[in-house]
């Protein structure tokens, strides 16, 4: 009985060595002690020119560009990086819609933006959970396009309502609170 147990343990040890050797070495993914720059350099050095092009050209909005394709040989899954979070999670089904940035700025309340941002982040993570289960679509990435910190300088600019207004000081304070809330 003792020899049988020893043989079984030896078998498990050999099996463990074989399966460990079969796990692909992706230092950019599995060695978290490496600095980010090293991890990024390692990943990019393993990408082909075509893979780099597809990762940069796809992943945004629209049928033709979403999501960025997976790279199975490197263990990289698909990714959708375009998510509009200007006043809540947009373009992705039911979500809370807060007033536009210019309306939030009119309150002169940094604390309000600090509380709006976590609500947006929570809904964004909930929608991102679909992606973990293989359901991809526009606006389901974790890259939040917000806040717009450009200063409103010209009333003809079509994106004025997405800004916090024309006061650089107020815009900076509100944007800082929004980002810290995310």
Automatic annotation (TrEMBL):
Per the UniProt record, the source organism is Littorina saxatilis
State the signal peptide span. Answer: 1-21
Quote the protein name from its UniProt record: Glycoside hydrolase family 3 N-terminal domain-containing protein
Entry's PROSITE patterns?
A: PROKAR_LIPOPROTEIN
Q: Name one GO biological process term.
A: xylan catabolic process
Its organism's taxonomic lineage begins at:
Eukaryota, Metazoa, Spiralia, Lophotrochozoa, Mollusca
Q: Which residues are listed as membrane-spanning?
A: none
PANTHER family in UniProt: FIBRONECTIN TYPE III-LIKE DOMAIN-CONTAINING PROTEIN (PTHR42721:SF42), SUGAR HYDROLASE-RELATED (PTHR42721)
Keyword Transmembrane helix in record? no
SUPFAM superfamilies the UniProt entry points to? (Trans)glycosidases (SSF51445)
